[in-house]
Specification:
Helix content: 40-55%
Number of helices: 9
Number of strands: 16
Number of domains: 2
Distance between the termini: 90 Å
CATH architecture of the largest domain: 3-Layer(aba) Sandwich
Structural class: alpha+beta
CATH class of the largest domain: Alpha Beta
CATH topology of the largest domain: Aminopeptidase
Strand content: 25-35%
Shape: globular
Strand order of the largest sheet: 13-8-3-4-5-14
Largest sheet: 6 strands, mixed
């Protein structure tokens, strides 16, 4: 009788061990799945490779060309088109303002840059620039001027030297530009006034020069402004104000380079060589000798 009781007690004990082990394994599997769901996306988004636990994680950062379009109302003929390149291995970022009436070809279609944008949107404009200039454009971003003003204010404005007193009132009596000469901090609305000023003595050439210098200054100052801040909220704020193919992984790869780049002022204006001609009573622009220009974006 005592032997039967000991055997029964032993069986109960073994059963408890089996049940406990089974539950433990199930919990371990569930925890592993949850951990994978949480951590693996970040692992792949950051595009990091690691062959052995003891080795340093290596992140491959490739140069990228970006097409930025800031729209001013529904007329793409009033938008601001800017091409820029980022390369952390060569901290010299060219910034080029593109003419709205730049003649481009995409497949069998030939039109101005603003015409391509109106016809097929940012992807058509991107394709046409790639085919005409012989470069690749990796990222694009489109935003209305009001959102650009918000981003400028978020980054603390632009420290800019306004050359000459700039005043312009349109035929309806609306003040378009009212800026005094001198170095000053321009909030978003003042940057808009500068972009919209139409009376440059050198015409379109000067307008493009001013546009490029605005974005050049803004890039350098934004690097300094964000270097000491929590960068992720700023990135999310900006990215939500534009239509873009810039991704979260782009941010996670680039954020560690902001501090070292902020001390170098890497952005510089690069003019696109063009030749002007009259077409249908309107001045349009075709590529000039763009050999050196193309090298800067390759």
């Amino acid at each position: 009788m005592a032997q039967r009781r000991r055997k029964k007690t032993k069986n109960v004990f073994l059963n408890r061990i089996i049940i406990f082990s089974t539950v433990f394994i199930i919990c371990l599997v569930i925890f592993s799945v949850i951990a994978a769901l949480i951590y693996m996306p970040g692992y792949f988004d950051n595009k990091k490779t690691q062959s052995k636990p003891s080795q340093t994680i290596v992140t491959v950062v490739k140069p990228a060309n970006l097409l930025l379009v800031v729209t001013d109302g529904a007329d793409f003929g009033k938008a601001y088109y800017t091409l820029l390149r980022t390369d952390v291995n060569k901290p010299a970022f060219p910034v080029t303002a593109l003419p709205r009436d730049f003649i481009l070809t995409a497949g069998s279609k030939t039109d101005t840059l603003s015409g391509m944008m109106a016809y097929g949107g940012i992807k058509m404009a991107k394709q046409a620039l790639e085919e005409t200039l012989g470069i690749s454009i990796d990222r694009y971003a489109v935003m209305p001027l009001s959102n650009y003003e918000d981003i400028t204010n978020k980054l603390g404005g632009i420290n800019y030297n306004v050359v000459g007193n700039l005043h312009y009132t349109d035929k309806d009596g609306t003040v378009i530009t009212a800026l005094e000469s001198g170095r000053q901090n321009l909030p978003g609305s003042y940057v808009t006034q500068l972009l919209r000023y139409p009376l440059w003595q050198e015409g379109e050439v000067k307008r493009l020069e001013i546009q490029a210098s605005i974005f050049e200054n803004q890039i350098d100052q934004a690097l300094v402004t964000t270097a000491s801040q929590d960068k992720e909220p700023i990135f999310k704020y900006i990215i939500n104000l534009m239509t873009t193919n810039i991704s979260g992984s782009d941010f996670f790869i680039a954020k560690d380079y902001i501090i070292p780049l902020s001390a170098k002022s890497p952005a510089y204006s690069l003019r696109l060589p063009v030749e002007d001609e009259i077409k249908d009573g309107k001045v349009v622009y075709r590529p000039g000798d763009i050999t050196e220009f193309r090298k800067a974006y390759q």
